[in-house]
Specification:
Length: 260
């Protein structure tokens, strides 16, 4: 399947490797790695989990489900994700970006995937978009560093590894990481989810079209969920900050109502 790489994709992949620090080819003889599996299929690594039912080791979604289900707490979930070998993005990433903030928070923000800064620091939403997110949350009295549940926020992404060139995650990548996202939400058990941007909506609602979805409460994983414009979109389209402000006020109102 990868043998159909077009010129631009191949070039982007090469640039990605250079960005990661691969400056020289190793080995005297060239190896066509795209053909290698046909001749000598490499056994897939066994699932690093103990599951009650047998898991097909070559079915990434089944392996992810078993690994996620075996996690009893957030540390266990992080370890299960770190041990998941079926997502190619892991190989190009510097760090697993698991989550940030206070797991006791009433709100859980779910973004798309780490970018460059997040990949370097191993924390979600720390680049320019993340700084805008922090300012947005501060406007409604929330801070990821707060130890007070009602003033805190917990932040994660659909994907824990940075996609090359910050490209959109593929449906396969989303599908194989979703069991971890579901378990993550189960373990944190927030009162509301904020779905940041199209990828998060696609993954959790099965719908895209953030312009229509935003600002309307819906349900995801059995919880109230509010789709919002992604802060990276707001950086590119400052006029949309008005809508984002409206949505933040909706979020604040809902949380206040839930308290009374
Ligand atoms: N965009 C996201 O969706 N998540 C991050 O962590 C950073 C940028």
């Amino acid at each position: 399947m990868e043998s159909q790489l077009d010129y631009h994709t191949a070039k982007a992949l090469l640039e990605w490797q250079i960005e990661l620090g691969a400056t020289e080819a190793i080995g005297d003889a060239p190896v066509n790695r795209y053909e290698a599996p046909k001749e000598a299929p490499k056994p897939k690594p066994a699932a690093p989990v103990t599951a009650s039912a047998p898991v097909a080791a070559d079915d990434p979604v089944a392996v992810a489900q078993a690994a996620a289900a075996s996690a009893q707490d957030l540390a266990g979930l992080k370890a299960a994700m770190a041990g998941f070998e079926h997502c190619e993005l892991k190989r190009g990433a510097r760090n697993l970006v698991f989550a940030d903030g206070n797991p006791a928070a009433r709100i859980m923000v779910i973004g798309e995937a780490p970018g460059r800064d997040e990949d370097l620091q191993g924390r979600p939403f720390v680049g320019r978009a993340g700084q805008l997110l922090d300012r947005m949350l501060a406007a409604i009295g929330r801070d990821r560093a707060s130890e007070v549940a009602d003033q805190a926020v917990y932040i994660t992404n659909i994907l824990p590894w940075r996609p090359p060139q910050n490209r959109d995650p593929t449906p396969e990548e989303i599908a194989m990481m979703m069991p971890f996202v579901r378990r993550h939400v189960d373990l944190v058990a927030p009162q509301a989810l904020v779905l940041m941007g199209n990828i998060s909506c696609q993954a959790l609602l099965g719908r895209k079209g953030i312009t229509r979805l935003r600002g309307n409460w819906t349900e995801a994983l059995g919880l109230p969920a509010l789709p919002m414009f992604h802060p990276a979109y707001l950086l590119r389209n400052p006029h949309a900050k008005r809508d984002a402000w409206h949505d933040l006020l909706m979020l604040q109102a809902r949380l206040r109502e839930a308290k009374t």
